[in-house]
Amino acid sequence: MEVNSAVHAGERVTRDWLDSVATAVLTDMKTRLSTAGAAVTSAKDSYDAKREQRDRLICEAVDGGMSQRGAAAAAGVSIARVSAILLASYGD
Q1: How far apart are CA 75 and CA 6, in angstroms?
Q2: Fewer CB within 10 Å: N-end or C-end of the chain?
Q3: DSSP tag of 79
Q4: Contacts of 88 (CB under 8 A, 6+ apart)
Q5: CA diameter of the chain
Q6: What is the rounded CA–CA span in Å between residue 56 and residue 83?
Q7: Are 73 and 62 in contact (CB under 8 A)?
Q8: Rounded distance between C-alpha atoms, residue 61 and residue 28, angstroms
């Protein structure tokens, strides 16, 4: 029962009642925040894996003879990004 409905119903709102409501809300929020945190971690892992795959494909395309400009256009990134990806991959 919410505080407003308890007051309107003529019930006495006690500190214990407020504490129990706060505990229930916080317990629910902990579960929801934990679930949201797991979803964010999963999405970040998926994003990182797809980015690594894109970078690997760009390197293979350029190594196979495609121009950096063509690889950039195909991947939807800038030519500078392709150059940075190539420099990072050759440094490994």
Answers
A1: 59
A2: C
A3: H
A4: 55
A5: 80
A6: 13
A7: no
A8: 49
Contact 1, 14 (CB under 8 A): no
In angstroms, what CA-CA distances link 59 with 29, 42, 78?
44, 26, 14
- CA dist 59 and 66 (Å) reads 10
Reduce the DSSP state of residue 52 to 3 states and report it: helix
| pTM attached to this predicted model | 0.63
The pair of structure tokens assigned to 45 is 């892992």
What pLDDT tens digit does each residue of the chain (92 aa) get?
Answer: 455 555 545 566 777 767 777 777 676 777 888 888 999 999 999 999 999 999 999 999 999 999 999 999 999 999 999 999 999 998 76
- The Cα–Cα gap between 48 and 78 comes to 19
- Rounded to the nearest angstrom, the gap between the alpha carbon of residue 33 and the centroid of all alpha carbons in its chain is 13
The residue to which tokens 């494909």 are assigned: 57
